Amino acid sequence: MKIVFKSIVLVFSLLIISCGGKEEKKKEGFSVDRQKTTTVKKETKAATTVKASEKIDLTTKGVGPVKSVTLGAEVDKALAAKGEDIYNKMCLACHRIGKKFIGPPPNGILERRSPEWVMNMILNPEGMVKEDALAKELLMEFNGAPMANQGLTEEQAREVLEYFRTL
After folding, report:
1. pLDDT in the model for residue 48
2. pLDDT tens, residue by residue, 104-137
3. Which of 34, 80, 93, 144 could form a disulfide with 162 if both were Cys (CB 3.0 to 4.6 A apart)?
């Protein structure tokens, strides 16, 4: 019985020694000390900067064959219907009514641009991007995606313009 008693005392003594102290020992090897990072505020351009698609310029006529366009007081429904058909076939791939897509939305365009500028952009997009400041800004705003020349006639461009008046 003495041996059993001594064995029990020895086991408890070892348990107390092994569990005692709660001292954390540093482990050797790789360790990471993290520090709280500080954020650096970047200065942004003034909030008053207006996007090219939102700028209003009703005086510029652009670069191209159209020098003057006379719009009637009323929308010509027949021209607008033809223009809608052309728009749906040729323009819808890049322009969506009411939202920015590959190109700017056409609705309200005549409140921001002259009819001559719109028609010249339709008929001569390459020349406009090279020489017209506003067309250059639009190209940059829309990720450098140039407007494709669809090869429309001046009459077809006028029909599309009339359709834009209905939007």
Report:
1. 59
2. 888 888 898 899 988 999 999 999 889 988 888 8
3. 80
CA dist., res. 109 & res. 81, Å (int): 18
Q: In angstroms, rounded to a whole number, what is the distance separating the alpha carbons of residues 117 and 109?
A: 10
Tens-digit pLDDT profile for residues 23-44: 556 666 666 666 666 665 555 5
Q: What does the alpha-carbon distance between residue 157 and residue 3 come to, in Å, rounded to a whole number? A: 110
Q: Which domains does the chain have, with CATH numbers?
A: 76-166 (1.10.760.10)
DSSP 8-class letter at 53: G
Residue 107: name the closest of 57, 159, 164, 51 by CA: 164
Q: What is the pLDDT of residue 122?
A: 92
162 vs 85, 97, 126, 127, 155, CA distance in Å? 12, 15, 23, 23, 11
Report the candidate in 49, 58, 52 with the shortest Cα–Cα distance to residue 143: 52
Which amino acid, residue 50? V
Q: Which of 40-49, 69-78, 143-152 is least confident?
A: 40-49
Rounded Cα–Cα distance for residues 25 and 7 (Å)? 30
- What is the C-alpha to C-alpha distance for residues 122 and 148, in angstroms, rounded to an integer? 9
